[in-house]
């Protein structure tokens, strides 16, 4: 069987590689990063071309994205796959499918049984509920992470299954909790600015000011570390040359070892907040977007939190400072609170309550997705 697979960011690249390894009976072509390349994929183009988020950011990269959409459509027509499997990056995925459906060669493939499967359900329970109906019209199957997400899509006829969070099995089984106690001589504060260049550029100045303020306030014995991904490592390395207090850098492949030793994490909103929650790391979540995107999001969002653990537990376990609230003084206050043993322990105890919400008893997400894709091809 031949699968055309597309991942547009680091978390999708990791999951895509796991799916590929579960399907050694399949040929894969498509788009991915270093993890999928290690699993045998020869990417059509750098995955970083798709790692764009925000209204103005997408507009600024419109020419590149359009070129990559056309290139991907041409590659699908040439490859004639059984299934197109897209992982997150919904804007790019939908653009590719729409263009395929407009082209005679694309319509021919669909008439001959080409199916579209998508991994990661959009958070319709948080905002833009109408997307569920659009997904039902666009995709043939959807892989959601959580049970509570499924009914939002099945009511429109979209075959949807919950597969658990992709990183749960790895992280819930490796919590060594080394080096986090207040008695440790060296306490690591991990500052995590995200994986997209646009968010890194926006958040890194805040992290710099926080690091400098902590050092100025006498947080002796603290060490600062930044985990980096392939798309942003060079930029971060160049920027921290000008910092008065220079954090260490570790590659993304070693980030879980870092998190296990982390005393406090200050992190961008996103997948990393789930990773930290699964490892029971006390953390503070911040995020900034350009003012126009921030305003647009505030008009439509329907939930009180952005961190997944807060949403699952329906309370603010991780403090969140978003948009204008992402200020040094707010982060400093939260860091000070997390140095209090009783506050730290309360947060860790609450994080433990979410443990069984992250995974499925019947198998890993990669295995469940691989089995479903294989069954869909066999039943064509």
From TrEMBL:
InterPro entries: Glyco_trans_19. GO terms for molecular function: lipid-A-disaccharide synthase activity; phospholipid binding. The keyword Lipid biosynthesis applies. Keywords: Glycosyltransferase, Lipid A biosynthesis, Lipid biosynthesis, Lipid metabolism, Transferase. One of its GO terms (biological process) is lipid A biosynthetic process. It comes from the Bacteria. Belongs to the LpxB family. This is Lipid-A-disaccharide synthase. It comes from Candidatus Enterousia excrementavium. The lineage of its organism: Bacteria, Pseudomonadati, Pseudomonadota, Alphaproteobacteria, Candidatus Enterousia. The gene is lpxB.
């Amino acid at each position: 069987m031949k699968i055309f697979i597309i991942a547009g960011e680091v978390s999708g690249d990791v999951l895509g590689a796991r799916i590929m390894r579960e399907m050694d009976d399949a040929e894969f072509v498509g788009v991915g990063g270093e993890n999928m390349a290690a699993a045998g994929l020869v990417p059509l183009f750098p995955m970083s071309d798709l790692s764009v988020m925000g209204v103005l950011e997408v507009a600024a990269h419109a020419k590149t994205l359009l070129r990559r959409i056309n290139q991907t459509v041409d590659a699908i027509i040439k490859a004639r796959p059984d299934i197109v499997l897209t992982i997150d990056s919904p804007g790019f995925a939908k653009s590719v499918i729409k263009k395929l459906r407009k082209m005679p060669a694309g319509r021919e493939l669909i008439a001959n049984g080409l199916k579209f499967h998508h991994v990661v359900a959009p958070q319709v329970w948080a905002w833009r509920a109408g997307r569920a109906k659009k997904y039902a019209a666009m995709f043939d199957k959807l892989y959601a992470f959580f049970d509570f997400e499924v009914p939002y899509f099945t009511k429109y006829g979209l075959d949807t299954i919950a597969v658990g969070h992709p990183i749960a099995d790895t992280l819930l089984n490796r919590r060594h909790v080394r080096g986090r106690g207040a008695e440790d001589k060296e306490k690591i504060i991990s500052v995590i600015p995200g994986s997209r260049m646009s968010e890194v550029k926006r958040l890194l100045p805040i992290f710099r000011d926080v690091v400098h303020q902590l050092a100025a306030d006498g947080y002796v014995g603290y060490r600062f570390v930044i985990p980096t991904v392939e798309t942003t490592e060079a930029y971060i390395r160049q920027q921290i040359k000008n910092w008065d207090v220079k954090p260490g850098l570790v590659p993304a492949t070693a980030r879980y070892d870092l998190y296990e030793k982390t005393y406090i994490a200050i992190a961008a909103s996103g997948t990393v907040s789930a990773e930290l929650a699964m490892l029971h790391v006390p953390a503070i979540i911040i995020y900034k977007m350009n003012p126009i995107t921030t305003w647009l999001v505030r008009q439509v969002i329907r939930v009180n939190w952005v961190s997944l653990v807060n949403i699952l537990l329906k309370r603010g376990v991780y403090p969140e400072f978003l948009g204008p609230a992402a200020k040094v003084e707010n982060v400093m206050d939260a860091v000070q609170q997390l140095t209090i043993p009783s506050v730290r322990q309360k947060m860790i105890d609450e994080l433990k309550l979410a443990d069984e919400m992250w995974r499925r008893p019947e198998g890993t997400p990669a295995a469940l997705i691989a089995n479903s894709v294989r069954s869909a091809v066999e039943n064509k």
